[in-house]
Amino acid sequence: MRFTEHAVINRRRRYRTNTLTATTEVTLVALGFALLGHPPYGAGLVALVGLAAVTPPRPQRTRRSEWSLPLVICVAIILKSIAWSRFRIHLMGRLPRGPVIIVANHAHDADSMILPVTLAMRRGLHHPLISSGSSRLFEPGFLAERMPPALGQWLAGLNLSSILWSIGVRPIEDAPLSHSLKSWAYLIYQVWGDEPLGDVFDEQLIPEEARGRAISYLWSRGGWALSHQRHTLRALKDPYRHWVRDHTRDLLESQMAVLREAADRGFAIYTTPEGRLTTDGRMARFRASWTLLVNGYRGSVVAAATSYDVLRRGRLHLWTMLAPLTRLESAESAVARLRPVTASHLVAHAWFATSQRTLDRLVAIALDTYHQLPHHAVIAHNLAQNPQGLIRRRVRWLLRALSQGAPLRDKRFPHVPDILTYYANQLTEILSALDSDVAPSALAQRNPLTVEGDAQSSLDRA
User: Fold this and answer.
1) Which of 85, 90, 109 is nearest to 315 (CA)?
2) Same domain (yes/no): 375, 445
3) pTM for the whole thing?
4) Does 147 lie in the same domain as 101?
5) Among residues 256, 297, 428, 453, which one has the fewest Cβ atoms lying within 10 Å of its Cβ?
6) Which one of 255, 278, 305 terminates a domain?
7) CA 381, CA 331: separation in Å to the nearest integer?
8) Where a domain ends, among 276, 305, 334?
9) Average pLDDT, stretch 378-398?
10) Residue-by-residue DSSP string for 69-103
11) Helices (H), 312-380
12) How far apart are CA 245 and CA 430, in angstroms?
């Protein structure tokens, strides 16, 4: 394997996708997802892409396009069309012109798919916007994992890496110490070829009937269940384990060099340094790759801090605050405090602040918290314009939703076990990051599940 400033080049083979073919595949996949509520249509369209992937493309020695404008426009139209039916995006602030690194929090797939497209369209699609994404995106089976198992196993070998590269997505290794078997296998496959499973992995992990099969078995229907098992580096045998251990850092540095080169050439870079979705509302620590990316960078760095207003009917609303960062060493804290406060935050906080969960009581506590927010807190525009009416509508929605019992879950956030705890934790973190001396800051030092006494006293005084 050779590491270059452009990409990690597979010494065995490279593939290039034709723009027309890629556009067709992207269109079919997007339509398939949009129509999955009608299985005969959605499943059929996505299956067409899977059938096209059964025969791998012919090897090409030509270099992949780093920004295919026709394909980017096609993907932008498709994603924005889907977004229009499922999301409502509200941007607060502006993006500077010229080179810029955009650092965002990661709470939902929309802030890594829909939001970058929205920002790219605001800048103009002829100005490339490069987005970093997990290396798992560039492996066979990533799309299949996000589909119903009955359909996903048919698409286990589908690899969209060429399409992703052409629309500006670049891989970043976000979990170097633990992978599924198919992820370890793909890393080995790119360098060593289609080796027997029994030679690559610890035999105790591989069923006896599969030990004589090659690595590519993990991307077939028969190996679908086996491929999802997650293991550490110890699952590999030597010399593969030794090689992976020695080359992981080189791989990460090579991936970061790709992003730095694009940034130095004047491209906009969009990155989510947390590397994973938050499950409890609190931001994860920024990974070390963030430091490698911004160290010595002389262009603009902008925070894209996003909150979701989820306690409502209809489309999912995103509120994103764009603000320049001057102290890069405190970027994590800046993104945390710049997340807009929404009505959902206040209602979730009120729910845990009292045991008298009536409409008027919850509205009063949420309004009390709203009026005590620090003056420099970022507040969603619709909340600032009509706090009482908006909060009352959110509380009514919540009481109806919880009539069937708690915890409250939202299918749009499948990784979140309790959406109310999620939003209460997030408001606590925002207030703590604001570092204010007013009453909500005191609340922010406590677990939101135990603040009933303080909120009750504040309400009584009001």
Assistant:
1) 85
2) yes
3) 0.77
4) yes
5) 453
6) 305
7) 24
8) 305
9) 95
10) HHHHHHHHHHHHHHHHHHEEEEEES-PPSSSEEEE
11) 331-338, 343-353, 359-371
12) 38
Instruction: Give pLDDT tens digits for 195-213.
Output: 999 899 998 899 888 888 9
72 Cβ contact list (under 8 Å, min separation 6): 120, 125, 166, 167, 168
Residues listed for the chain: 462
Write the DSSP assignment of 261-313 as a string of letters.
HHHHTT-EEEE-TT-S--SSSSPPPPPHHHHHHHTT--SEEEEEEEEEE-SSS
Q: Which two tokens stand for residue 403?
A: 């009539």
As a whole number of Å, the end-to-end CA separation of the chain is: 67
For residue 2, what are the contacts with CB-CB under 8 A and spacing of at least 6? Answer: 8, 9, 11
The backbone torsions φ and ψ at residue 64, rounded to the nearest 5 degrees and listed phi first, read: -70, 145
Is the Cβ–Cβ distance between 431 and 441 less than 8 Å? Answer: yes
The answer to whether residues 300 and 402 belong to one domain is no
Both tokens of residue 143?
Answer: 């799309």
Instruction: Tell me the one-letter amino acid at 423.
Output: Y
Q: What is the pLDDT of residues 1-55, one digit of tens each?
A: 333 333 333 333 333 445 555 555 555 555 554 544 433 334 334 443 443 333 3
* Integer Cα distance of 397 and 352 in angstroms: 16
- Determine the average pLDDT of the residues in 94-114: 89
**Does residue 278 sit in the same domain as residue 421?**
no
Element (H, E) at 165: helix 161-166
CB-CB contact of 284 with 105 (8 Å):
no
Report the C-alpha gap between 433 and 444 in whole angstroms: 9
For residues 163 and 266, membership in a common domain is answered with yes
Q: Is residue 137 part of a domain?
A: yes
CA dist list (Å): 424 to 128, 149, 370: 37, 33, 14
Q: What would the 3-class secondary structure string for 104-150 be? A: ECCCCCHHHHHHHHHHHHHHCCCCCEEEEEEHHHHCCCHHHHCCCHH
Residues 6+ apart with CB under 8 A from 357: 351, 399
Tally of domains in the chain: 2
- Domain contains 328: no
Of the candidates 427, 329, 332, the residue with the CA atom closest to the CA atom of residue 377: 427
